[in-house]
Write a structure and sequence with these properties.
Layout: H1 2-9, H2 20-29, H3 37-44, H4 49-63, H5 72-85, E1 95-99, E2 102-105, H6 107-118, H7 125-131, H8 140-145, H9 150-163, H10 168-180, H11 187-193, H12 202-212, H13 217-222, H14 230-240, H15 246-256, H16 259-269, H17 275-286, E3 290-291, H18 293-298, H19 310-323, E4 326-327, H20 336-350, H21 352-369, H22 379-394, H23 400-410
């Protein structure tokens, strides 16, 4: 019975403790029914005990990498088994897709790879190139890079990629190989990958294109075929690269897109100093019942350097004084007032002539509104900060007091 077998396994009430591998097999045999000794012997005599032993050693070493649990004889036997069995497997077909996002991986190839790496075995070049298609774990292909010629690996990796039907993990590791070694021949594949709405490798493909392409115009051409939020990740890359055509694309969306698309496009167009985008975005801010931290951290107002935006910014400041848009977790920092101040600072310090224009505009704003909104006098501190920062930027050799005097002489 099971109790007797468990007692044997742990040496309870027995003269000796039997090997776990034996008692575990016996327990499995008798799991659903009672079996006689004759039936047990008949079954276990059909087993490949060398394979049973190899699997048992693999499982132990996989859980405990310490090789000291093996004798030299056992290690030699494992190595001999690997060299004997390597001709009986096919790493190219060891991974089989079983459904969307799921695969089946052959156990023998898994064990052979484990011992190959652990004991630093030497397999033929053809076998190592085949193992590329077994590269489902992140460290497999990098390890093969230590064993193979990179040019030969590159040819095989590209062949595997363009032949298609790779499992998701294997494809990812192939693409990362191309990324590490700056293999431009993968760009065409990556361009096709980014338009697949069901691919979760689109971000990696996008990084590859951005890093390896001499021009991102081919990426721009793919934009009409890309749907969802991923489109804006592509726009990010094109804006970061100063692509000459992305502004026109964004302007088209801003003119013809739905409200959500217009808003997203405005965030970029503000960085291109488009006054209509600035006006649209400020109107959107006014519509907010609550000014969230995300609105503050994602706001592009700090990129404005266009002096034509000054009246719009001051109008937003006044609107907030009048309507008091609630600020999420109001801490005095992530507020609409702070956004406006940052934007005015950017404009003022962008060019020498801008400083005087911003200073005069803010002073006029204070005078026009201080009777109705006493808190507007806080903007005087903004002027003082601008004066200090202006001359700090101009010369580190000028004392702050002298700088302020010189600024006041300008106006």
């Amino acid at each position: 019975n099971h109790k007797y077998l468990f007692d044997l396994q742990y040496g309870i009430g027995a003269e000796k403790k039997y090997a776990t591998i034996v008692t575990e097999k016996l327990i499995k045999l008798s799991l659903n029914k009672e079996v006689s000794l004759k039936e047990v012997l008949k079954t276990i005599n059909t087993w490949d005990w060398e394979w049973v032993w190899i699997k048992n050693i693999y499982e132990k070493l996989n859980n405990n990498p310490d090789e000291s649990i093996l004798t030299d004889t056992q290690k030699d036997k494992i190595i001999a088994w690997c060299y004997d069995q390597i001709s009986t497997v096919d790493f190219k077909t060891a991974i089989t897709k079983t459904g969307p996002g799921s695969v089946s991986i052959n156990y023998k190839e898994t064990i052979l790879w484990f011992f190959f790496k652990k004991f630093k075995l030497i397999f033929s070049e053809d076998i190592l190139l085949d193992i590329l298609l077994f590269g489902f774990e992140e460290d497999i292909i990098p390890y093969l890079e230590e064993c193979l010629d990179i040019d030969k690996m590159t040819s095989q990796v590209l062949e595997n990629i363009y032949n298609g039907d790779l499992s998701r993990a294997v494809l990812e590791n192939h693409l990362k190989f191309c990324q590490r070694h700056k293999i431009k021949d993968v760009i065409d594949f990556a361009l096709d990958e980014i338009v697949k709405s069901d691919s979760d490798l689109r971000f990696l493909a996008l990084d590859l294109i951005s890093e390896l392409s001499d021009s991102l115009n081919s990426l721009l051409e793919k934009l009409p075929a890309i749907n969802g939020d991923f489109k804006w990740s592509v726009v990010d890359k094109l804006v970061e690269s100063n692509n000459s055509k992305i502004e026109a694309y964004l302007s088209q969306i801003f003119e013809n897109g739905n409200e959500s698309e217009r808003y997203r496009a405005s965030l970029y167009l503000i960085k291109f100093q488009k006054i209509e985008a600035i006006r649209f975005y400020i109107d959107k801010l006014k519509e907010q019942a609550i000014f969230t931290i995300n609105f503050y951290s994602d706001s592009p107002l700090g990129f404005i350097s266009e002096i034509k935006a000054i009246p719009l910014l001051l109008d937003l400041f006044k609107y907030n004084l009048k309507n008091t848009i609630k600020t999420e977790g109001r801490d005095g920092f992530n507020t609409i007032e702070r956004l406006v101040e940052n934007a005015l600072t950017t404009i003022a310090l962008n060019e020498d002539k801008n400083f005087v224009i911003v200073k005069e505009a803010v002073e006029s704003f204070i005078k026009a509104n201080i009777d109705e909104y006493e808190s507007v006098k806080y903007l005087y501190s903004l002027i003082e900060k601008l004066e200090m920062q202006y001359f700090i930027n101009k010369s580190k050799d000028v004392r702050i007091e002298d700088a302020i005097i010189k600024v006041r002489q300008l106006v």
